[in-house]
Amino acid sequence: MSDNKPLDDKVILVTGAGGGIGRAIAIEAAKAGAAVVINDIGASLDGRRESSAAAQDVVAEIEKIGGRAVANGDDVSDPDGASTMVRQATDTYGRLDAVVNNAGILRDGFFHKMSYQDFDAVVKVHLYGTFNVSRAAADVMREQGTGSLIHMTSTSGLIGNLAQANYSAAKLGITALSKSMALDLQRWNIRSNCIAPFAWSRMTSSIKVDSPEQEARVNRMKEMRPEKIAPLAMFLASNEGADTTGQVFAVRNNEIFLMSQPRPLRSAHRGEGWDFDSVAQHAIPALKPDYMPLTVSGDVFSWDPV
């Protein structure tokens, strides 16, 4: 029996890896043989810097189990910071095989109360951060002729949630960005995929509990550990994941979902073209049975996690 591990000789950069899902993926990747760059700026949930110790703490955990890791404190929302963390990976380990774009912040609020600053800050970290790190990594991966880009999206963007316009917009934007990267980079054997994770972490700890139903939902989420996300991320980073690209997955405890992507549902055709009356009397009544309801993530994933 071979002693080879699935990520032997791989180098992986995980952003926002000082805690939660990023930390779990980084530690499991190290156990699977990868050398890991642990990026974290030590920020509070809303993105304000607090401490730079988080990344170094994860490095110490990995070294304690015999793994290889280095800490990085650059900001994903800064293109120069993204370039620096990619360069640190190649300077330290000679290559970069996978990126996990996990860094994120939250500034929740109802749309009619949301400030420009809170919208901008969240989009900068999630969407621009994903672009910045992936763009810097793409140059290295093109030279290598291989690589894997893995991005954390959310059902807040894929389905919808209350009071998260900034976060939802950024997360759905990431899925479109990922698809474009998958299309543009396939000639260099670089793949790009998204994961929508369900797990109790610092990001989900901000969920407002103002009803028994919300309390029950939060209690269910507390049972979903960040470590449950790691196996899929490691597969996507491995050689075995080489033919998986352009996909959107969700992980919910012991369930893995392949999520749909927008495609036509129903059509209405009128040979002579449309005017206001025919749209109102013909097109809309024909299309209306397939309207998407105003559901939130909890409505769609309504059963208890298994």
UniProtKB/TrEMBL annotation:
<dbReference type="InterPro" id="IPR020904">
    <property type="entry name" value="Sc_DH/Rdtase_CS"/>
</dbReference>
<comment type="similarity">
    <text>Belongs to the short-chain dehydrogenases/reductases (SDR) family.</text>
</comment>
<dbReference type="GO" id="GO:0016491">
    <property type="term" value="F:oxidoreductase activity"/>
</dbReference>
<feature type="domain" description="Ketoreductase">
    <location>
        <begin position="10"/>
        <end position="206"/>
    </location>
</feature>
<dbReference type="InterPro" id="IPR036291">
    <property type="entry name" value="NAD(P)-bd_dom_sf"/>
</dbReference>
<dbReference type="Pfam" id="PF00106">
    <property type="entry name" value="adh_short"/>
</dbReference>
<dbReference type="InterPro" id="IPR057326">
    <property type="entry name" value="KR_dom"/>
</dbReference>
<dbReference type="InterPro" id="IPR002347">
    <property type="entry name" value="SDR_fam"/>
</dbReference>
<dbReference type="InterPro" id="IPR051687">
    <property type="entry name" value="Peroxisomal_Beta-Oxidation"/>
</dbReference>
<protein>
    <submittedName>
        <fullName>NAD(P)-dependent dehydrogenase, short-chain alcohol dehydrogenase family</fullName>
    </submittedName>
</protein>
<keyword id="KW-0560">Oxidoreductase</keyword>
